[in-house]
Write a structure and sequence with these properties.
Elements (H helix, E strand, L loop, with lengths): L4 E7 L7 H25 L5 H27 L2 E7 L2 E7 L4 E7 L3 E7 L4 E6 L4 E5 L3 H18 L1
Antiparallel strand pairs: 1-2, 2-3, 3-4, 5-6, 6-7
């Protein structure tokens, strides 16, 4: 028996950083640490190069966080997903714009979900890619089971 519908909402205000964004910031922080340490230690021959390097990395992280919060406050983005037996409705809302998309399951060609970064996409037969975002791993598992049941029913 297939579930009739499944729904979840992703609010960017609620999330501090998406997991992939946090990984990106960590990698950039490491690169900034290595680059600035090399610069202060080798080029400038600065005696307390470790402290200067840590200050530069902390400044980068704080600036990134502040800019991210300002952008989230300005955009006020939210995505709502409603999976039904026949289609998936995706509603993307920002402060000035509302976009609604219906993806029929019969047009679905491929789907991919990433449990590490809590995201994924649907790829339809008309070559359109629809990104998906989740708040928790539990939401993702429920959606994956829902899609499997719908796809079995489709065959």
């Amino acid at each position: 028996m297939v579930m009739k519908q499944l729904s979840w909402k992703v609010k960017s205000k609620k999330l501090l950083l998406f997991r992939i964004e946090a990984l990106f910031v960590a990698v950039l922080g490491i690169l900034i640490f290595v680059g600035s340490f090399f610069y202060y230690y080798k080029v400038l021959k600065f005696p307390s190069s470790l402290w200067a390097t840590l200050f530069v990395v902390a400044l980068f992280v704080v600036l990134y966080y502040i800019i991210s919060m300002v952008i989230k406050h300005i955009r006020q983005a939210e995505e709502h997903y409603l999976a039904q037996d026949t289609h998936l409705e995706i509603t993307k809302t920002t402060k000035k714009k509302l976009v609604q998309v219906k993806v029929p399951w019969k047009r679905l060609n491929h789907h991919k979900l990433d449990k590490t970064f809590l995201g994924g996409y649907l790829f339809t037969k008309d070559k359109k890619r629809h990104p998906l975002f989740f708040n928790t791993k539990n939401e993702m598992v429920k959606f994956e089971n829902f899609v499997k049941k719908v796809m079995e029913k489709k065959r």
